[in-house]
């Protein structure tokens, strides 16, 4: 007679052929459970050595500090999150239907129309072409001068193409501007008018958020210099007007070099020093 198991009680029904020992094992099954892991061993396995944890925290802190400084002050090589509009302006080339690229969106329709009429007449008479560019903020270049130079080089890569061309850049968030151009343009305008326009018309009026006046007054001043007419001058200052906070090109170049050295040194510290500390810790063990 075969043994029959109840699906609910897990106990064998009566069978005279089953010995008492077998019946005892069947009615009282023993399930062996794994021994619990020691609490002390588990806690110890999840903890890192104090020295190694300390080195890791220093590594993370220095790396975060170096990355923050690199984003704010580093050279363009270290920056990968540059503003896309800056590169769009470069890649799209110089404007064909106008003389203005208003990426910052600060110029009125009247200003664009007056600017086009003024610069079209200049190019027809003097064969000198001037492009005006407005951007909100520069993230790929340190200042407006460097970005203006890049625009001129990319748009007109040869001397034959860019000799009579010029680019005027206005950065609205930084309240600064820059003017660059080929040899024919520089000779026709002169260094005095170029420096005055960059230091007066663009930054002072931009500080007051008079972007339309900053652009059009700069254009009239450059055209007057090319035509040999009297200089209309820069904006009129009031006694209670605050000074412009723009920086000269020389000051920017000097500080850019200092920032590059600082960021480079911090990057070395962030990666070399923690590795040396960890190696010393491992060597002592």
UniProtKB/TrEMBL annotation:
<dbReference type="Pfam" id="PF04536">
    <property type="entry name" value="TPM_phosphatase"/>
</dbReference>
<dbReference type="InterPro" id="IPR007621">
    <property type="entry name" value="TPM_dom"/>
</dbReference>
<keyword id="KW-1133">Transmembrane helix</keyword>
<keyword id="KW-0472">Membrane</keyword>
<feature type="transmembrane region" description="Helical">
    <location>
        <begin position="259"/>
        <end position="281"/>
    </location>
</feature>
<dbReference type="GO" id="GO:0003729">
    <property type="term" value="F:mRNA binding"/>
</dbReference>
<keyword id="KW-0812">Transmembrane</keyword>
<dbReference type="GO" id="GO:0010206">
    <property type="term" value="P:photosystem II repair"/>
</dbReference>
<dbReference type="GO" id="GO:0003993">
    <property type="term" value="F:acid phosphatase activity"/>
</dbReference>
<feature type="domain" description="TPM">
    <location>
        <begin position="101"/>
        <end position="224"/>
    </location>
</feature>
<protein>
    <recommendedName>
        <fullName>TPM domain-containing protein</fullName>
    </recommendedName>
</protein>
């Amino acid at each position: 007679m075969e043994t029959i198991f109840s699906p609910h009680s897990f106990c064998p029904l009566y069978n005279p052929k089953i010995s008492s020992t077998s019946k005892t094992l069947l009615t009282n099954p023993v399930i062996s459970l794994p021994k619990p892991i020691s609490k002390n061993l588990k806690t110890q396995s999840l903890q890192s050595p104090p020295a190694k944890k300390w080195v890791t925290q220093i590594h993370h802190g220095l790396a975060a500090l170096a990355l923050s400084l690199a984003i704010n002050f580093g050279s363009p090589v270290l920056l990968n999150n540059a503003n896309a509009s800056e590169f769009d302006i470069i890649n799209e080339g110089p404007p064909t239907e106008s003389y203005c690229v208003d990426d910052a969106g600060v110029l009125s329709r009247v200003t664009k129309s007056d600017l086009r009429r003024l610069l079209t007449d200049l190019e027809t008479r003097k064969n000198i072409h001037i492009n005006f560019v407005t951007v909100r903020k520069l993230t790929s270049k340190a200042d407006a001068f460097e970005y203006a130079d890049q625009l001129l080089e990319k748009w007109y890569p040869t001397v034959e193409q860019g000799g009579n061309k010029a680019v005027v850049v206005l950065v609205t968030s930084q309240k600064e501007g820059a003017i660059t151009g080929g040899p024919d343009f520089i000779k026709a305008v002169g260094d005095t008018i170029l420096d005055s326009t960059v230091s007066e018309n663009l930054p002072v009026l931009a500080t007051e958020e008079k972007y339309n006046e900053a652009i059009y007054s700069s254009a009239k001043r450059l055209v007057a210099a090319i035509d040999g007419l009297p200089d209309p001058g820069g904006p009129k200052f009031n006694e209670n007007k605050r000074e412009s906070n723009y920086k000269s090109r020389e000051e920017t170049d000097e500080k850019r070099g200092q920032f590059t050295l600082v960021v480079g040194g911090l990057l070395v510290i962030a990666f070399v020093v923690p590795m040396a500390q960890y190696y010393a810790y491992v060597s002592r063990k």
